Amino acid sequence: MVNMKKYIKYVLILALIIVAFILWNNYRKAKKAPEWRTDSPSQGSVREVVTATGSLNPYVLVNVGTEVSGKIEKLYKDYNDVVRRGELLAKLDTELLATSLEAARGDLAKAQTALDEAELDYNLQNELFERNMSPEYDLKKARFRVQTAQQNLANARLSLQRAEKNLANAHITSPIDGVIVSRAVDEGQTVAASLNSPTLFIIANNLDRMQITAGVDEADIGKIKLDMPVEFSVDAHPNQRFLGSVQQVRLNPSTESNVVTYSVIIDAQNPERRLLPGMTTNVTFIINSREDVVRIPESATRFRPSKEVWEQFGLKWDDELLNAGRKAIQDAMNKQSSAPDSQTAKNETTSKTPAHPRRQGIRQGQDREAGSTSRMSIVWLLKDNLPQPLAVRTGVSDGAFVELIDELPQDARLVTGVIYNDTKQANQNSAPGMRRF
To answer: How far apart are CA 396 and CA 37, in angstroms?
Structure first.
């Protein structure tokens, strides 16, 4: 009897251990079982943008140089000074230039005297030739001397003008109204104007209005249009957004490391002069923008079924699921093709009570705007832990969210991927050749 009781006791203990093991194993499997990653429609803004980098510069940037060589005798303007057209910026040493001017004046007087002497000799030879007292040869020689003297006088006058111009060029003046952004010389420095004119100053015409030269990739340049709104930021003011608009798309491409880019000129107002020449800008071109619309995650439109995932959830796989999305789109297109007939009937019914012209125009404009950017997408709704395909119309996408044109319940659960609680399953699905979500 005692042995029987011990036997029953051992059996109960063994049964309890087996039950505990089964419960623990089920709990472990349930804890490591994958889960559907879901999201719901939300309200917000969606913007399709193109990003690029560029540099800020004034619209007109003039390099002020010198046409003559010499030593900088005096500087009258410095960095950031506001100048007017014709205002004196710097002066070169004029001692040698003034000496050259006096020499040119002396050469002019000498040439004038030589001309007077040649004319006097010619008149004498002409009078003697008329009286048959001198040969024609002497008369022609006298005429040639007059012509040579006239040419020498003209050259002397040109040399005088050149000397006067060089002396005037020793006074460097501003060619435009603007602000000095760079000064490349100091007093006492010698500048040599040989083949290239040395740059003394750089003047910006107006810092209240700047331009950005942004490099846009060839894959995105087709989206850029004139007068398109632009937002940009600079590192000097990271928390401030500046506005601009596209003014020009230049046709000349530039290639670097086999990457083709095009220069886009952006107009930017700078009334507070926070934007300085040469700043690097992070530019955002606003291609399309939708404010306060229903949106869904972009990942919901990229989810696709696979046999591996279905089996991990314990669901029955059917090869028809691969064509379920295409079938849903076909059904939606068939429904849309039959919609015009019902819409025509509805319009005929409501034609007796026409809508307000302004409301009707707004509604038609919204329909055209939505239709111009809409496309059919497949989303998978989670119902009873089973994803089901649904074709919906979507609009503008910013990469994270996409505008939803069709209506969905606010509590709709859209499958965006799979959450793997088991490390082994996660590694298997991240291996090459496996479908990832």
So the answer is: 23
Distance CA 128, CA 134 (A): 5
CB 370 within 8 A of CB 395: yes
Q: Give the amino acid at 171.
A: H
- Distance between CA atoms of residues 213 and 61, nearest Å: 14
Distance CA 402, CA 44 (A): 10
Phi, psi for residue 248 in degrees, rounded to 5 = -160, 140
What distance in Å separates the CA atoms of residue 422 and residue 35, rounded to the nearest whole number? 10
What distance in Å separates the CA atoms of residue 124 and residue 138, rounded to the nearest whole number?
A: 10
Residues 6+ apart with CB under 8 A from 412: 40, 41, 381
| Dist. CA 293–CA 45, nearest whole Å | 6
Which pairs from 135-144 meet CB under 8 Å and 24+ separation? Answer: 142/118
Give Cα separations from 2 to 5, 171, 393 (angstroms): 5, 127, 78
122 to each of 109, 133, 134, 145, 194, how far by Cα in Å? 20, 14, 12, 8, 44
Side-chain half-sphere of 50: how many Cα atoms within 13 Å?
19
What gap in Å lies between CA 234 and CA 282, rounded to an integer? 6
Report yes or no: 283 and 54 within 8 Å, Cβ to Cβ. Answer: yes
| Cβ burial, residue 395 (10 Å; 0-12/13-18/19+) | buried
Alpha-carbon distance of 34 to 25, in angstroms, equals: 16
Please indicate, yes or no, whether the overall pTM of this predicted structure exceeds 0.85: no
Task: Enumerate helices (H) and strands (E) in the chain, giving the number of each.
Answer: 8, 19
CA 244/CA 40 separation, integer angstroms: 35
Q: How many CA atoms lie within 13 A of 47 on its CB side?
A: 12
| Mean pLDDT, each 10-residue run in order, the chain (437 residues) | 66 74 62 79 90 93 90 92 93 90 93 92 88 86 92 94 91 93 90 80 91 94 94 93 94 92 95 92 92 90 86 80 75 67 47 40 41 76 87 88 86 86 55 39
Q: Which residues pair with 211 in a beta bridge?
A: 57, 267
Residue 133 is encoded by which pair of tokens? 């007292």
Residue the block writes with tokens 């950005």: 212
Strands 199-204 and 88-92: unpaired
Q: Which two tokens stand for residue 183?
A: 């000064």
Nearest to 396 by CA among 223, 261, 248: 223
